[in-house]
Backbone:
């Protein structure tokens, strides 16, 4: 039992805005004061300190084949030593990290949940092996659907029941959490050396378009009532002028409604928010996108902010990764995956002296500032935009115009004319930023017991050495940044796991997966699946992940 | 039992059928079937040739490992990920060296990947799309017997329906069994793969005029012909083997081939992939990569992983006499390593964990027999293209699994080391 | 000047980042210098005899240091003389000063050398003056002279400096080189793969790659990277 005394709580889900409050924990859950025996409680004196829910990272690349390929390709990344083996594991990594490092670094920062954003279905077991090796945090994975032949076939036949059954079957087989769509149709086009350029391009070999892929999957997702919405990585990522595709894609949510959450989450929008026609005249399309997102009440986005320094581009957007390799001449790995998807990995970096990188950096921040705080989640699309350990940098920047002014002086002046960042006066409040990093991502994912400190929530708590009532967030940005980098206490499931950046206890979290099989009749799709398995290289009987193979599975049944 | 997964070569065929009555497996090739046949086993744990209990053998192993200044933990390619993970953590805890079989086979591919990346695909992608398949320094008809029918030669795919719609090319130093069934065989002078690949890159990028009339024993016209075929392919695949990784050029051969594939991808689609030998050599590299950052040749002396194949590959460690104890798991270095390396291995205390006796058993101070993954124990393995498969437990056994043995060793080591 | 002598035969390799800076310390301090003996952190004095003679910034490593790695790492000035063989990673990331190895050197000599001089009277092994795993640039300055033979991978990704090998070398001399000079007095194998600039001079035989154009300057290439590197005989 835990009693966090006198902390200043910010809990947007429960509308608590910097109130002095006690938090009580029992059996890994947050409970009411009447449910604990105060004499038996371990007491944490949180006087004058900020108490919030543990952070929720709803889009990061933390586990699976492409992450491991990134590590293998980049020994120069792995050579940075973070922790020497002793009571805890040794951890290594600069921006790319080993699995133990991922868990420890999230924990030190006060983050307690992270989701692998793109899981190749046939490689699901590998993703889960890596997730199981990440300590401290709770996790989940999102299998990709946007280039899966089986998905194309259901849409070609205009058969929603088949598509629903397929989605339910696939999420169960991959022990995944939701429907991720990456460059729909484009990765299949890459198998022929091409890509798709518009929502209405025909996918080679199939009678479907990206527009149809996205809308049909939203329909299936919503009828199944999955906790999370369709999670979309738009077409034309990284292409100047692509903000229009993004807006068109966002508008596909029109007509859909879900009382609990958004019906479409568009991810790492920074990479899809470019105006202009080439890298010579590229500019920001963030303001236009923000306008559209703000006008809709059923779409959310996440920033995909770029952080100056090293990074690694790794996505399922195989054609984009190849064009990046050509553009910057960097190393390139690729993995065409059965009839399901693809992936690409290219080492990159962001330099403040580079006009394009500065533009990307500015756009990420524009999105965070211009989009309503109940519609934009803070991410860097780790490791594509940069390390997740720099989320505090983004947090501090969102809350301080002065900090932004200082940073703007250090970056390439190209951003002055091509983005609105210099003229944005908005300083988001702490309440908003906590929402963007805790309660909103939990809501977007559909995790009811995460991201807040109400009774019944999982006891994932972060305490920061920061008094929100006495801090001038506009001016004390250095202090704000430092405070959020290292939690004074991180508590996971009611246990103290880190203190002042030091590891206290190693725990292993849960892997959430969604079981929607009761909502469908699997027999509707099984004959198609059985037939299409002629084109796989494994037996249907050997495809998929059994729950008992996972260390700590947590099944969310959809009824 | 259906859908049995083979645990012999990197093809990891998963369409086997096990007859529980006859205790035989069907559908697998000779190599795979031999794995499932009854074989001589190490009967019981031993110390200095005397039978002891598992606990005693483990205690002795722990004593040897903890007292060593630099224990070498080697093998790993023929066991499951669950065991490998414990092995990696154990090596870290002991401050020893972790190395796996790839260091004498396909490590050059990893080094090449560090230099250039790896533009690849899963075997299903090749089966469905590849209209041109090149086997370079690789002879699947002998080393990976069912690779061709399942994935690369006569496999029936979505876009490439059968053998007739595929062009098979073999590049090798002598006519192999695979060359005999290929549509084109390019015989090259041993040791000239690197030069030939450079020539192909030059021809394809429009610099054919610089290329001399003969490169590495191959006439220029033949190279031009090969280049044309590669350019015209809709989706090509290069599978390479020990012919290029363990002959002159090694990692630079692969690096050059990767650059060739990068070039080809500008106008068409090509992928390249190694023909991995052991059924879970990929796991033996992937597991340490996510746990500690690297795939092989890892030293933990300083309490964290350091990667240096020139120093920490098992053979290099032994040649420099840079280890004073060894734990060999699912491998036979005495049979395969150079004489000078084996000489040092014989001078240090060796602990072996393996289901089957081999030459290393003869020099091991402590021998711990284990269950066979895929027959007596369930576990996760990665096929040559990194597709994960879960091998099954078919028969009961009293043998402990590698995972359990290593966990018991780790537990005791943690207790001693804190 | 410090004279350092092995006390015994080592059971495993030692990692000792000894540099001439050490000669500026007292003998007691030097004896306490931490080295790695396998996974044990040990004081230098436990494994080596240490004697100080005068104030020169010089180390004399007297004996077989063939299993002592990382000698001269990051040194900036002063001198190291090894009266015997030296272990791997000798002169790693060196910026100045001089190392003389009277015996043979092991792998990874002069990793990413930026300045100074390394002279090996005997043979070197593989990886002379190269970029470390995953790094983009190799040697940028300084001079490495091997009186005997060397192995494979010489001056890869070189961007400055000079390497002279009086005997033979193996394959992959000057791969991906951008600037600098490599001189081989004997014969070697594959030379200048994906070379962009710099010069390689060879006296004996070598395997010319099919991607170099013959000009008056010598062979220019590598055409695969539109390189303007020069290979010539002398």
Residues:
């Amino acid at each position: 039992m835990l009693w966090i005394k006198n902390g200043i709580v910010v809990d947007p889900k429960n509308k608590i805005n910097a109130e002095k409050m006690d938090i009580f924990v029992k059996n890994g859950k947050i409970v009411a004061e009447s449910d604990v025996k105060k004499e038996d409680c371990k007491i944490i004196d949180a006087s004058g300190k900020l108490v919030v829910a543990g952070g929720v990272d709803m889009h990061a690349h933390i586990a699976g084949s492409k992450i491991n390929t990134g590590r293998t390709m980049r020994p120069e990344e792995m050579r940075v030593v973070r922790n020497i083996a002793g009571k805890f594991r040794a951890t290594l990594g600069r921006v790319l990290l080993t699995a133990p490092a991922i868990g420890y670094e999230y924990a030190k920062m006060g983050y307690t949940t992270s989701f692998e954003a793109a899981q190749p279905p046939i490689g699901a077991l590998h993703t889960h092996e890596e997730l199981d090796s990440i300590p401290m945090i709770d996790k989940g994975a999102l299998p990709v659907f946007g280039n899966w032949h089986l998905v194309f076939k259901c849409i070609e036949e205009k058969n929603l029941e088949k598509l629903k059954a397929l989605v339910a079957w696939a999420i169960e087989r991959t022990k995944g959490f939701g429907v991720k769509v990456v460059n729909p149709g484009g990765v299949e086009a890459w198998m022929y050396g091409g890509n798709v350029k518009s929502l209405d391009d025909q996918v080679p070999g199939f009678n479907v378009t990206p527009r149809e892929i996205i809308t049909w999957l939203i329909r299936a997702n919503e009828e199944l009532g999955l906790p999370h919405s369709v999670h979309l990585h738009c077409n034309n990522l990284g292409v100047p002028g692509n903000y229009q595709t993004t807006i068109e894609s966002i508008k596909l949510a029109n007509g859909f409604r879900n009382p609990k959450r958004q019906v479409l989450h568009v991810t790492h929008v920074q990479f899809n928010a470019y105006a202009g026609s080439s890298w010579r005249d590229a500019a920001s399309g963030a303001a236009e996108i923000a306008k559209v997102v703000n006008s809709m009440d059923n779409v959310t986005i996440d920033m995909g902010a770029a952080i100056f320094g090293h990074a690694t581009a790794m996505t399922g957007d195989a054609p984009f990764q190849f064009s990046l390799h050509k553009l910057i001449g960097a190393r390139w790995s690729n993995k065409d995956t059965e009839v399901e998807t693809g992936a690409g990995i290219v080492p990159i970096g962001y330099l403040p002296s580079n006009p394009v990188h500065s533009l990307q950096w500015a756009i990420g921040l524009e999105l965070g500032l211009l989009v309503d705080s109940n519609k934009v989640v803070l991410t860097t699309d780790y490791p594509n935009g940069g390390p997740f350990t720099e989320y505090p940098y983004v947090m501090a920047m969102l809350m301080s115009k002065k900090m932004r002014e200082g940073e703007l002086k250090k970056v390439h002046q190209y951003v002055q004319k091509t983005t609105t960042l210099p003229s944005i006066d908005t300083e988001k409040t702490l309440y908003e930023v906590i929402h963007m990093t805790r309660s909103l991502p939990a809501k977007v994912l559909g995790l009811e017991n995460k991201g807040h400190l109400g009774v019944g929530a999982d006891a994932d708590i972060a305490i920061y050495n920061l008094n929100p009532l006495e801090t001038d967030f506009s001016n004390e940005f250095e202090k704000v940044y430092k405070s959020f980098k290292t939690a004074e206490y991180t508590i996971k499931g009611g246990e103290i796991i880190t203190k002042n950046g030091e590891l206290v206890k190693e725990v292993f979290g849960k892997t959430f997966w969604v079981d929607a099989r009761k909502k469908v009749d699997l027999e509707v799709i099984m004959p198609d699946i059985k037939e299409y398995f002629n084109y796989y290289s494994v037996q249907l009987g050997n495809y998929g992940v059994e729950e008992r193979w996972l260390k700590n599975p947590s099944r969310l049944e959809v009824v | 039992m259906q859908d049995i997964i083979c645990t012999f070569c990197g093809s990891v065929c998963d369409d086997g059928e096990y007859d529980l009555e006859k205790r035989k497996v069907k559908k697998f090739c000779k190599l795979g079937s031999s794995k499932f046949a009854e074989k001589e086993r190490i009967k019981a744990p031993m110390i200095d040739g005397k039978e002891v209990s598992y606990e005693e053998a483990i205690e002795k192993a722990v004593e040897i490992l903890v007292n060593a200044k630099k224990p070498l933990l080697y093998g790993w390619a023929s066991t499951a990920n669950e065991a490998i993970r414990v092995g990696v953590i154990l090596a870290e805890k002991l401050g020893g060296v972790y190395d796996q079989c790839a260091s004498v086979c396909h490590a050059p591919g990893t080094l090449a990947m560090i230099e250039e990346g790896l533009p690849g695909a899963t075997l299903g992608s090749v089966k469905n799309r590849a209209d041109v398949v090149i086997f370079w320094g690789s002879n699947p008809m002998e080393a990976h017997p069912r690779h061709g029918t399942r994935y690369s030669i006569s496999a029936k795919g979505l876009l490439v329906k059968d053998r007739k719609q595929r062009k098979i090319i073999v590049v090798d130093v002598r006519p192999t069994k695979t060359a005999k069934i290929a549509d084109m065989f390019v015989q090259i002078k041993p040791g000239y793969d690197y030069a030939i690949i450079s020539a192909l890159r030059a021809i394809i990028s429009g610099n054919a005029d610089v290329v001399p009339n003969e490169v590495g024993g191959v006439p220029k016209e033949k190279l031009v012909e090969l280049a044309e075929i590669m350019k015209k392919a809709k989706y090509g695949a290069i599978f390479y083997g020990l012919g290029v990784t363990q002959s002159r050029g090694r990692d630079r051969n692969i690096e050059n081939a990767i650059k060739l594939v990068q070039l080809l991808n500008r106008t068409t689609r090509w992928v390249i992939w190694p023909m991995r030998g052991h059924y879970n050599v990929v796991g033996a590299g992937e597991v340490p990569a996510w746990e500690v950052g690297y795939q092989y040749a890892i030293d933990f002396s300083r309490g964290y992983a350091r990667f240096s194949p020139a120093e920490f590959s098992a053979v290099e460690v032994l040649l420099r006499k840079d280890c004073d104890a060894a734990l060999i798991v699912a491998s036979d270095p005495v049979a395969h390593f150079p004489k000078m390396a084996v000489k040092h291995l014989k001078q240090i205390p060796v602990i072996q964990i393996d289901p089957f006796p081999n030459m290393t058993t003869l020099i091991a101070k402590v021998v711990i027999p284990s269950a066979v993954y895929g027959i007596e124990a369930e576990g996760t393995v990665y096929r040559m293209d990194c597709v994960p498969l879960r091998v099954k437990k078919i028969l009961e056994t009293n043998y402990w699994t590698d995972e359990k043995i290593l966990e018991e060793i780790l537990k005791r080591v943690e207790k001693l080391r804190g | 000047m410090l004279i350092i002598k092995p006390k015994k035969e080592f059971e495993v390799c030692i990692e000792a980042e000894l540099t001439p800076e050490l000669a500026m310390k007292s003998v007691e301090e030097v004896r306490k210098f931490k080295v790695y003996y396998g996974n044990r952190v040990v004081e230098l004095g436990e494994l080596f005899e240490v004697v100080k003679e005068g104030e020169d910034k010089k180390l004399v490593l007297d004996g077989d240091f063939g299993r002592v790695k990382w000698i001269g790492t990051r040194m900036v000035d002063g001198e190291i003389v090894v009266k015997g063989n030296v272990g791997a990673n000798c002169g790693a990331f060196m910026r100045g000063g001089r190392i003389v190895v009277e015996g043979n050197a092991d792998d990874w000599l002069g990793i990413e050398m930026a300045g100074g001089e390394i002279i090996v009277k005997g043979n070197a092994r593989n990886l002379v003056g190269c970029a470390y795993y995953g790094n983009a640039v190799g040697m940028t300055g300084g001079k490495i002279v091997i009186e005997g033979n060397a192995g494979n991978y010489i001056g890869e990704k070189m961007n400055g400096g000079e390497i002279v090998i009086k005997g033979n070398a193996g394959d992959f001399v000057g791969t991906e080189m951008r600037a600098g000079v490599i001189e081989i007095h004997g014969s070697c194998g594959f030379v200048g793969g994906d070379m962009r600039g710099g010069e390689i001079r060879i006296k004996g035989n070598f395997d010319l790659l099919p991607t170099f154009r013959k000009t008056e300057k010598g062979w220019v290439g590598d055409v695969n990277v539109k390189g303007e590197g020069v290979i010539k005989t002398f």
About this structure: Chain A has two domains: 2-52+457-503, 54-445. The domain at 2-52+457-503 of chain A is CATH 2.30.40.10 (Urease, subunit C; domain 1).
